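Let's see one such:

===
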Amino acid sequence: MAHHSLNGSSKRLRIEGGWDEKPLDLGSCMDQVQQLMMKARMIYEAKEQNEEHINITQQIILNELFMHALFQSVIRRSSGGKKKQLIVGLISFQGEKMLRMITGRPGPSGFGSATTAEQVTEGIDGSNLTPTVTGGASGIVLETARVLTLRNIYVMITARNMEAANEAKQCILKDNKAARVDIEKLDLSSIRFFKGFSDNFIELNLPLNILM
């Protein structure tokens, strides 16, 4: 009995040609399945991170609202000079927070919104550390790799585009000729690249202290 699709075409499952023209390659199928699973996991992890960020933001807002409500409650129960002092204190407290955020003035931790990575890591000797920085060929990740090398840390930059990765390496070496930095090809969507990178890294006989 002849098989017919819903649109009247004789093509089965919309695959061009006969089944015999496309032999099943188990290895390729497994690679595709692994890649799909990897992408699905990355999407899920990104979603979890986004939800975590939202939860943290919501908690910060709730804390701010709680503190504001607490101040308001205390102010309402106060009178005279005490009430005036509390109002001035509340305005000063909120103004101080906004001022630090806008101007970058350091807070209780010693750091502020204008603090740089070099300032945060000043005085650190990471000569015994080995981080792997994924996607370190540009942007904030490249800046992270640059600062890590300033602290005597051996940095392994991984990227899909090796030309861009090499440019990043040369950029780091231009500013710091003593920088210990290498590049390695890694495509996060391919299990083959994961295996290849893992094998190459193991051959270096180095610890993996930080994975970014």
Q: What stands out?
A: The first strand starts at residue 131 and ends at 134. Confidence is low (pLDDT under 50) at residues 1-19. Strands lie at 131-134, 155-159, 181-185, 210-211.
